[in-house]
Amino acid sequence: MTDALKTFYVTTPIYYVNDVPHIGHAYTTVAADCVARFRRLKGYKVLFLTGTDEHGQKVQKAAAAAGLEPVEFADKVVKRFQDLWKDLRISNDDFLRTTQPRHIASATTLWETVKKNGDIYKGEYEDWYCTPCENFLTETQLKDGKCPDCGRPVERLKEESYFFRLSKYGEALLRHISENPGFIQPENRKNEVVNFIKEGLRDLSVSRTSFSWGIPVPGDSRHVMYVWFDALSNYLTAAGYPGHNRMWPADLHLIGKDILRFHTVYWPAFLMSAGLPLPKRVFAHGWWTVDGNKMSKSKGNVVDPVATARKYGVDQFRYFLLREVPFGLDGDFSIKALEGRINGDLANDLGNLLSRTLSMIEKYRSGVVPPEINAKDRVDLEKDIKGLLETLPKDYSDLIGGLEFHQALNQLWVIIRKMNAFVDKASPWKEKDEETLSNVLYTLAEGLRIIAVYLFPFMPDSSDRIWEGLGMEGGIAGRDFDKEVAWGGKPGAKIKKGPPLFPRIV
Ligand code: ME8
């Protein structure tokens, strides 16, 4: 039995509403969904949070360009994110908008607490600012006079500002990182952060007077909070802060590598100042390029997840995102690669295996899954498949725990390919011996039943279709992972053949 008190809190970044959703947003959110679904199957009480980052100059400018009030503008874009998550079968438990009263209360309390602890003071700021990144830069950080991260022009900002005493936290951060080796992942990202901190931290400007679209600074409403102070505190808001804390600290912040510093330097420093525990782990994944090029609006090559999922299928798209590239590394998206995965891994391997299995059960056993009979002459491959499935639960759980999605899928496909080879080799349709034939068919049906459970976090709908095809009722959600992946499911179910699971792309 799993322990009902185990909890798991996983987050995505909250996305800016100045832009519509693209493949990058879908990537982080599908990965978080896979983690959340797996933990639920393992018996955890999960809080899976995503949402939108709605304040700041960037959003104010985008709204003005569209001739709308920021909040009206945000409402429209938020709906596009929410619709996309529904389409992609994202199982988030909460959707946070930074314009919600619960969040304004939380960010305000965090500010007041940090201020009370002596870490916020008033000063004057003069530096370069990159509005697309909402980031301050010193003269020496600029590259050819432009933002070193996104390459766009920067603006000179001079204004009265509140500062956070970030400089005070360098040593404490380095100590925390060294004492908690799993805090920043992957390893190369951790090294980047350590080097950045070792160069010396400057106090951070955390308020603005040059625009008004933000959460007012408590006690000084001429200022609004710096959008990153506001945004990062969303993770506390959803955990119940400042009231009863249900889930803090988060177990896992999933982010893209572009926002590493905010999550592993600023955020932990704010939390230390407020006397709150730090998130257990921050994992920064890599970036997608498209046909080898940086994705950008000006190039017109932004991959639209809505259109892609509609054309190729939701599960096909989810599978591709998590299978194509090791999580943590950069990867390239191309239609050729997507179609290759669909026709190869999904149609030829998995879809074909299911349809062959169901056809044989229909033909040789009138559509009823036969029992396993303890025959002497087991085909070697049959023992092999069973053996592989019996050792998989631990490897698979470790791989998902380590966010090595592509490896977890790889291991499953080793078994799926062996099962196809097994069908070829055992050629059950030529088999005379009834016992061996029953064993062959049971092995295929049972193997597929177990594979459906493993695949559920990645491809929920297709997994349920495999499950139902094998004559099982009720779907996979809510079941106990350890119990369901154990060999020995009951025979006797009446199979239900349906249309091909993954139609080939021609
Ligand atoms: O940064 N490849 O929001 P954002 C992979 N509001 N992932 C990508 C990507 C790409 N090409 N482009 C974007 C923000 N992403 C802030 C976050 S959190 C407190 C505040 C993903 O809308 C990746 O997860 O710019 C990245 O971190 C996120 O989108 C940035 O989304």
Question: Would you kindly provide a written description of the structure presented here, covering whatever features stand out?
Answer:
The protein is α/β, with parallel strands linked by helices and 506 residues long. It has two domains: 3-285, 3-Layer(aba) Sandwich (Rossmann fold), CATH 3.40.50.620; 334-484, Isoleucyl-tRNA Synthetase, Domain 1 (Orthogonal Bundle). The protein has helices at 23-41, 57-65, 70-87, 101-116, 170-179, 187-198, 227-232, 234-238, 260-274, 305-312, 314-324, 335-365, 380-401, 405-426, 434-455, 460-469, 481-484, and strands at 7-16, 45-53, 94-97, 120-130, 135-137, 155-164, 184-185, 204-205, 207-208, 216-217, 220-225, 252-256, 282-285, 288-290, 293-294, 331-333. Strands 3-2-1-12-13-7 form a six-stranded parallel β-sheet, with helices on both faces. Strands 5-4-6-8 form a four-stranded antiparallel β-sheet, with helices on one face. Strands 9-11-10 form a three-stranded antiparallel β-sheet. Strand 12, helix 9 (260-274) and strand 13 (282-285) form a beta-alpha-beta unit. It is elongated. The chain starts with 6 loop residues before the first strand and ends in a 22-residue tail after the last helix. The model has no long low-confidence stretch (mean pLDDT 94). The structure holds ligand ME8. Residues 13-16, 24-25, 27-28, 53, 231-232, 234, 255-256, 258-259, 287-288, 295 line the site of ligand ME8.
